[in-house]
Amino acid sequence: MSDPRIDAATLEAFTKDCFVRAGLPEADAAIEAEVLIWANLRGVDSHGVQRIPSYLDNLEKGWMNATPDIKILKESPAVLYMDADKAMGPIPTVQAMNAVIEKAKQVGIGWCLIRNVTHQGAMGYYSEMAVAEGLAGIAVVCSPPNMAPFGAKAAGLHNSPIAFSFPTSKHKTVTLDMATSVAAGGKLSVASDKRVPIPVEWALAPDGSETTDPDVASILRPAGGPKGSGLAMVFQCLTSLMANNPLIVPVLKSGEKIHNQNSFVAAIDISFFINVDDYRSLLDETIDELKALPKADGHEEIMMPGEPEYRTFDDRSANGIPLPPGTVEKLQEAAQRLDLTSPV
Predict the structure, then answer these.
(1) Please, what sign has the CA dihedral across residues 203, 204, 209, 214?
(2) Residue 227, Cβ neighbours under 10 Å: how many?
């Protein structure tokens, strides 16, 4: 039997209601819901509604703050330094991205370092905000350790997701949204929800041994070995350490891990260097030439970063978002917990 499909608008309304019941102001709950459904529509289910129960848990624990006092600690024409006061990630990150977009329009680039934030969802949502304004966008996040550095069999780095987005004319926006691990941590939860094993390359068991059980796997493995591990280290340098909110060493020393994140978002004014329409045309031409290359065995076409997600978006926008059994149970649990009607 195939997974039930739920209309995106219905699922988004339910998600918003969950967070309003959990204490978020209505406008903030709407942002949170939009970011989660954005991910589900693109097939990034690891960062979609399956996270609702864990977010509710974190709100109850005080690890996430439903009514944060978000502050700008420091500001220059190009740079912002923000403390998010443990806000649910999308709320301060949307604020930060809007701010750096305006800075980029004024001085060519905008950069915001965000400390003390919580799970931000799919980072491509924020980099694509810049593209909507004719700019290039970047978004990066770091959390406590969940990935084994190259050569280790214990968690020591975070798998630091990063997203880049660039505008086109005839093709879809080019968006590379990836983690520095072989697979995002949320994909373990999705595999568990689907009741399927994971590839052995994805993650290790708590004792450092190999496993294909998503319910046992807990230590992610770096993509490309030293390459993914090295990038994760670089992003620590650009986020947690620079924000004076270290999340790696305290956990490694104490063994205690609470949810917290540091992040940066940036926007670049392409028109400072080249006419934006000319840039779009050059990128379209580049894509055309890449797609025209001879296909490798087993490949029917050459796809660009973000292209599979856009195709999934078209399908799910028309036919609804499929929800595996475990995710259905999570939504039903959340509905019961908050005295709401489950959408499925």
Answers:
(1) negative
(2) 12
Query: Does an H or E element contain 166, and which?
Result: strand 162-166
Q: Where are the alpha helices (DSSP H) in the chain?
A: 8-21, 26-41, 52-61, 90-107, 124-131, 186-194, 226-238, 249-254, 276-291, 307-319, 325-338
Q: How many CB atoms within 10 Å of residue 21?
A: 16
168: closest CA among 290, 281, 313, 289?
281
> Which pTM value belongs to this model?
0.94
In 132-242, which residue ranges form alpha helices assigned H by DSSP? 186-194, 226-238
254-305 per-position pLDDT tens digit: 988 889 999 999 999 999 999 999 999 999 999 999 999 999 999 999 999 9
Given a contact cutoff of 8 angstroms between Cβ atoms, the answer to whether 89 and 120 are in contact is yes
Whose CA is closest to 63, among 247, 237, 329, 339? 247
Burial of 182 (0-12, 13-18, 19+ CB in 10 A): buried
Q: CA 208, CA 78: separation in Å to the nearest integer?
A: 44
Separation of alpha carbons 174 and 167, rounded Å = 7
